[in-house]
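Chapter summary example.
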Amino acid sequence: MADSYIQELIAERIGGNKFGKDTVLYKFEKIKRARRAAMKEHPDMDIIDMGVGEPDAMADSGVLETLVKEAYKWENRDYADNGIEEFKNAVSKYMEDVYNVKGIDGTTEVCHSIGSKPALAMMAQAFINPGDVTLMTVPGYPIIGTMTEWLGGEVYKLPLKEENNFLPDLKSIPKDILKRAKLLYINYPNNPTGASATVEFYKEVIEFAKENDIVVVQDAAYAALTFDGEKPLSFLSVEGAKEVGVEIHSMSKAFNMTGWRMAFVTGNELVVKAFAAVKDNNDSGQFKAIQLASKYALEHTEITEETAKKYSRRHSMLVETLNKLGFNAKKPKASFYLYVKIPKGVKNGPEFKTAEDFSQYLIREKLISTVPWDDVEPYVRMSVTFLAYGEEEERKVMDEIYRRLSDVEFIF
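The structure predicted for these 412 residues follows.
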């Protein structure tokens, strides 16, 4: 069948006339295919899913009840545009109560977003012209980089290495890149490494941004999910941060609200205003009832505290289980991700040249789903959001992981 003329009209940024014909499989599509094949080959075994990066729990009952109540109100039926004051003011109080960030003006320094993903995409739209550079850490969440390239910009990648506590080396950036750089994207606590930032690092970032006239975009999706003595730390709590950038927070991870699509951008007034201008041309705001349910969540931080306790417990269990099998797993102090260096292979079995090799082995042979990262060094990301109800079931999952992996000897 001949190609439709439409094939020739598709934008080059998504493939142009080759759109839909690319035979290269992306990481998550490979995982999905391997998962389907494994389930077909092993119908007697259940998948242990540590690949999905979203909470296994539902939103709090108070959040749900607020949604229902507000959804029935006539005045909440219409467009929300760039957000309602009730939610913005709740953000201001939340930032002070949880992160000790004082003085956030809800009217001018907060704007909601329909999830953090579009917020990152729109941030590039607000600042990137052809030839401009976005600095971003890798491995990591690619959206701001993808949009930068779609806009004719360039992405300069800053590798995250264990030897540097998975923090980027800002001093390594070439001068010609710095001259064209407009945005620095960071993400702490980090996906996928689970690493936390420090006040000292944020001070370095602020100084770097001022010296090079760069806007900082700190993705704080996991910032409230801390444990083992680690306190939630906001970039904006460090002196000078609001002069150089913004922080993006999500309701998804801290409040078990992934499908609700609710986030907020806060910080520098002009950056927030620029984001809001782009947003106003992309959407008409999130349903007001969802904003009001999110307001309830922000006012009940005990929801996050209980969730963090669960993830901490699961991390401890998983680290103990993996280390009994010979891994060198280290419990993070935040997020629900465990980042583990892969073995070299299995004794009298396959070798693993890449994280993808190992991840494919785990899903196909052991029905354990993980996410491979080969951007810098070969690691797999394991999410402790696997399905289990209570500590007893969590322990059963750990016992099953150990049982499935203990019949082979990994080579490290």
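To summarize the output: The two ends are 51 Å apart (CA to CA).
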